[in-house]
Design brief:
Mean pLDDT: 80
InterPro entries: MFS (IPR011701), MFS_trans_sf (IPR036259), MFS_TsgA-like (IPR050375)
Keywords: Cell membrane, Membrane, Transmembrane, Transmembrane helix
Shape: globular
Largest sheet: none
GO cellular component, one term: plasma membrane
Pfam families: MFS_1
Structural class: mainly alpha
Transmembrane segments: 36-58, 70-89, 120-146, 185-204, 211-233
Radius of gyration: 20 Å
CATH topology: Growth Hormone, Chain: A
Distance between the termini: 30 Å
Strand content: under 5%
CATH superfamily: MFS general substrate transporter like domains
Low-confidence stretches: 261-265
Amino acid sequence: MFVVGAGLSTLETAADPFLAICGPPKWSEVRLNLAQAIQGVGAFVAPLLASRVFFAHTIDTDQGLKNVQWVYLGVACFVGLLIILFFFAPFPEITNADMNAQEHAMTEVDPGPLRKQYNLFLAVWSQFCYVGAQVAVATYFIPFCVETGRSDATSSDLLAVAQGLYALNRFIAGGLMTIPAVKPRYVLAVYLALCFVFVVAAMNTTGTASIVMLTFVLCFESACFATIFTLGLRGLGRHTKLGGSLLVAAISGGMVFPHDRRRDR
């Protein structure tokens, strides 16, 4: 798990800033939201394939363990092919000087020292709090459904539906941001406000209604991560790479916020 976590964090640190700055700055939110939408589709499809195809006939025996090992070996081989592809693909190397020149060409203003990048620091704090809230909602979604009388299997399927809406809404958010009158910060503000509204609604309803409200929370969380990320990188110039690393590190909020409910008893 440590190796997987280290690999994913490295990938996020490299890929997210690259997507944010590899094209016209005004479309950075669109690019990252669409990329995150593809990731969301994978997060939705992969568990369904695992439970209904790859591990559908897995039994608790040595043969069952071998079946699981073959699946993971196949995934590892596919990742190895991707590594080879990225090694030979002609991706441009974007340096701090390039990013500083791009920012200067846009604003003709030097971004200044890192300690004065208040927008970045606010974005890091926002990302920390947002990811903590997102992980908490996703972690307790199934127990929440079980407490309303659903079975574990049904609750798992409901979570899959919520994740599907999460992925779909990322495409919708990316499309909205292509409209000149719709600023990314407006989309972020509306989505966060809707998350708040539906969380309060989920807390004050019961049964199916509460599950629907919590599903909408997951749905409108969709565009928040990517939009906070790209807004936090705006105007950083030569500090963009470090800013991207700090924003990825803010994912640690997902470790801090969720807690074991048994401690509350």
